[in-house]
Model the fold of this input.
Amino acid sequence: MKSVKSENNEYYRQQNLPYEKFIAYGSKSLTDSELLAILLRTGTRGVSAKDLGERVLTETARCGNGLLGLYHISLQDLMKLDGIGQVKAIQLKAIAELSTRMAQAKAKNMLSFHNPYSIADYYMERFRHENVEYIMLLMFDSALHLIKETILSKGTVNASLLSPREVFIHAFEAKAAGIMLLHNHPGGDPSPSENDITVTERIFQTGLLTDIPLLDHIIIGDNTYFSFKESKIMADMSCSEEAIQERKG
Done:
C-alpha cells in the first residue's frame, strides 16, 4: 500500500509542479524549463511559469544551444516575450552570468600555468561564449606566478596586426619574466590561422631577444582549445643562440 507521501510525490510528478517536484525528487529530476519556472516564479495570464520557461528556451535556442543561449540573448530580446518584463529578463541574464562564474571558479581550483589544459579550462567559460575576438596577454614572474593579465584587443581583429612592441611594452611595465598569449575564435574552431602562426612567431622571436620568453599561445574554441606549446609548433620557431646574438649585436 502506497504511503500518502509517495502518492503526493507521484501527483506532483504527473502534474509537473516544479517546486513540489524539486522537493519530492531533487533538482536533477527537473527539466530545463522547470528549473526556469522556479526562477521565474510566476507566469502570465493563461501561461504557467513552466510554459513561460519553455518559451524562453525556444527563443534562446536561436542564440545558442539550449540554456547556453541565455548568455547570448540580449535583455531587449528577452523582454519582447509575453510575460517577461525587465525584472525577469535581468534575473535570467544574471543566471547566465552566475553559471559562467561558477564554472570558472570550479576550473580555478585546478588551474596550473604549467598545464595548457588547465589554463584553457579556466579561461574557457570567460571567452567561449563571446561573439567577438579577444586577445589577452598573461604576464608571469620567474616562478610562473601570474602578475597581471590585460586585454590587448577586442572585436573583429586581424591577428597579424598585433604588434610585438605593444605586447612587450606591457611586459616591461609589469616586470614580467615570461608571457603567454590567449585568444578566442568566436567560430568555435581553435585551429590556428596562418596569421595566428605568423604573429606568434614574431612575438616568440622578440621574446628571445628581450629575455621575456613567450611560453605559450592558447586559442580558445567552443569547449576545445589549441596550444602552440603542446603542438610543438613553438619548438620549430626556436632560433640558434648564434642568431640571437647576431640580432642583439
